[in-house]
Amino acid sequence: MKAFAQFVMRGPAQAALVIAAFGLLSLILPLFGLISSAAVGLVTLRDGARRGAVAVAVATLASAAIAAVAFGAPLVAIVLLLMLWLPILGLGALLRQSRSLALTVQAAGLLGVLVVLLLRSLVDDPAAAWLALLRPIEAMLVQDQVATPEVVGAMIGEVARWMTGAFAAGLVLQWLASLFIGRWWQAMLYNPGGFGDELRSLRLSRWVGLAGLMLLVIIGFRHGPGLGADLLVVLSVLWLLQGLAVLHALHHDRRLAVGWLIGLYVLMVLFMPHAELLVACVGFVDIWVDIRTRMSTRPTAPRG
Q: For each successive 10 residues of the chain (304 residues), what is the average pLDDT?
């Protein structure tokens, strides 16, 4: 991975090649989008927004040319630019200038809020729009006899009601995961261990907690998905990251075996989304009671 990061940093051409190639590959396997955006983040964090913008511009032109030849759809490059590259360019520039991971994470959350508001302003009935997009999945589940048509229809209908918030939260999580990868690469090349220290000290503003409490009250009175629920889903991504920061800090302070963290992430995959909800609750509580400071006064356990 270090060699890959070094290749990205050789120059604008190499960076643009990685950004464009992995961006186009993300149309086949979305996880490649993380690598593409992380390359944008690495260049921006290390060399500044101007160098990052040059790499993104070259990658956009290259992607448009390749997409025009391969798919007859050059506008694919615009989708990649808006969904993957521009948000990371902005967040990377903010992190470089502010040197505050917490501020950058909160800015990403604000972008997610703007996505929710934009979708709800452009579409009169977002749930109906998502339901139309989910119809092929519903038909496939019915055809495979996963459940009765009535049960499948009810399930898809409920999913559609939550999709606006889930879509925005997914974007925020993807942007921040890409930015974190880029920051990790930067630390690997120029400041070994720096990203770990930065992640473990991540601490959100109490305003993020207050906003969550207000949304919980609104949802309690509304009884169901809506704008408040969509915004709360976006905020939960920020709490999830703070929860992970708490768990990483406790792992580091107690000098636990690396298998402890591996097990944590395995459980998060196997028990999605319940495990993520628990970790997000840890992050939400930490906003108010500072778990890391309280736990650091206890004796550390021997390394396993």
A: 88 91 90 93 93 94 90 87 93 94 94 93 86 82 72 81 91 95 93 88 88 79 75 92 92 84 88 87 90 68 42
Tally the C-alpha atoms within 13 A of residue 209's C-alpha that lie toward its C-beta: 17
Cβ atoms within 10 Å, residue 51: 15
Reply yes or no: is the peptide bond before residue 136 cis, omega within 30 of 0. Answer: no
**Could you tell me the two tokens for 208?**
């993020």
**3-class secondary-structure state, position 53:** helix
| Alpha carbon distance 56, 65 (integer Å) | 14
- CA distance from start to end of the chain: 26
CA distances from 172 to 54, 106, 219, 235 (A): 24, 10, 22, 10
Instruction: Tabulate helix, strand, coil % of the chain (nearest 5).
Output: 80, 0, 20
Virtual torsion, Cα 75, 76, 82, 86, nearest 10 deg = -110
- How far is C-alpha 174 from the geometric centre of its chain's CA atoms? 3
Judge contact between 57 and 13, C-beta under 8 A: no
The tokens of 18 are what? 């990685």
pTM score, whole prediction: 0.89
Determine the Cα–Cα distance for residues 102 and 104; give it in Å rounded to an integer.
5
Place of tokens 């993104």: 56
Q: How far apart are CA 121 and CA 128, in angstroms?
A: 14
Distance from C-alpha of 183 to C-alpha of 202, rounded to nearest angstrom: 14
Give me the phi and psi of 268, to 5 degrees please. -65, -30
Q: Please choose, from the candidates 56, 86, 80, the residue with its C-alpha nearest in 3D space to the C-alpha of residue 71.
A: 80
